[in-house]
Amino acid sequence: MSGYASFSEHALCSMAKQQKSPRQRHVPMRTCIACRKVDAKRGLTRLVRLPEGRVALDPTGKQAGRGAYLCAERSCWEAALKRRAVERALKIESLETNDRQMLLDHALTLPYGSDTDKVDPVPVPAM
User: How far is residue 81's CA from residue 112's CA, in Å, rounded to a whole number?
Assistant: First the structure.
């Protein structure tokens, strides 16, 4: 009889383990420097400030250096370049002409986004 009780306890424990939901995987989030949209890191394009002060696209997201993120929409890239948001985010005085042209060329390959694509920025609690 006692063997039956231990079997049922074991069965209940295994059923409880099976009913647990799988552990949620952490998804790193980043903010677009132009529109302030928060998205998964993989959903945004990373710019990186290289050690010599130049700026480059970082498609892998793993290059060393200070980074900034932009949506894959032409309007965000144009706004960021116009408002000097790239320089501010990467903490540089100004973009070199070649770097600015490279970023503009990349922006031309991107589609225009619509306002419906945008989400409200995440509110920051007041301190």
Answer: 15
CB-count burial class (<10 Å; 0-12, 13-18, 19+) for 50: middle
pLDDT single digits (tens) 89-127? 999 999 999 999 999 999 999 988 766 555 555 555 666
Instruction: Indicate the pTM of the whole model.
Output: 0.72
Q: Are residues 110 and 73 in contact, defined by beta-carbon separation less than 8 angstroms?
A: yes
Is the distance from CB of 47 to CB of 81 less than 8 angstroms? no
pLDDT tens per residue across span 37-57:
999 999 999 999 999 999 999
Edge-to-edge strand ranges of the sheet holding 66-70:
55-58, 45-49, 66-70
Residue 77 is given by DSSP the state H
User: Helix 74-82 crosses helix 97-108 at what angle (to 10 degrees)?
Assistant: 160
List the beta strands (DSSP E) in the chain: 29-31, 38-40, 45-49, 55-58, 66-70
* Token couple for 16: 């409880």
Q: Which helix (H) or strand (E) holds 38?
A: strand 38-40
Q: Mean pLDDT across the stretch 18-32? A: 86
